[in-house]
Amino acid sequence: MTLEILTPDKTIYEGEATSVTLPGTLGFFEILNHHAPIISTLEDGKLTVRGGSAGKEEVYFIKGGVVEASNNKVVVLAEGITHK
Fold first, then answer.
1. CA atoms of 9 and 19, how far apart (whole Å)
2. What is the CATH number of the domain that holds 76?
3. In whole angstroms, what is the distance from residue 50 CA to residue 39 CA?
4. Which of 23, 42, 63, 74 shows the smallest number of beta carbons within 10 Å?
5. How many domains, the chain?
6. 0.70 exceeded by pTM
7. Range of the domain at 20
8. Rounded to an integer, what distance in angstroms lies between the CA atom of residue 35 and that of residue 83?
9. Residue 32 Rama label (left phi>0; alpha psi -120 to 50; beta)
10. What's residue 41's pLDDT?
11. Closest by alpha carbon to 32, among 20, 16, 14, 15?
């Protein structure tokens, strides 16, 4: 699937991923390839990307936001972010 992680001022990540784990309002959840369409709010917490271009795991810490997944494309709009 294609993943984009964006903040108001820049693109943090853009590329392929096999899964992304996100801090949802009601707890952590994971989006995999061919996930059903979803829009969800996000809380402050750890966002984990697996299977990116290097085939490894990348961890980011976000400060709230929203995520949309549709047609094998996931877009994360975060208010703020730091890379671990």
1. 25
2. 2.60.15.10
3. 20
4. 63
5. 1
6. yes
7. 2-83
8. 25
9. beta
10. 97
11. 20
Run of H or E residues at 84: none
Instruction: Profile the chain (84 residues) by mean pLDDT over runs of 10 residues.
Output: 95 94 95 94 96 80 96 96 82
Identity of the amino acid at 24: G
pLDDT in the model for residue 53: 58
Q: Are strands 19-24 and 45-50 parallel, antiparallel or unpaired?
A: antiparallel
Tens digits of residue pLDDT in 55-67? 789 999 999 999 9
SS3 82: strand
Q: Give the CB-side neighbour count of residue 1, counting CA atoms within 13 A.
A: 23
DSSP 10-44: -EEEEEE-SEEEEEETTEEEEEETTPPPEEEEE-S
For residue 70, give both structure tokens. 């549709």
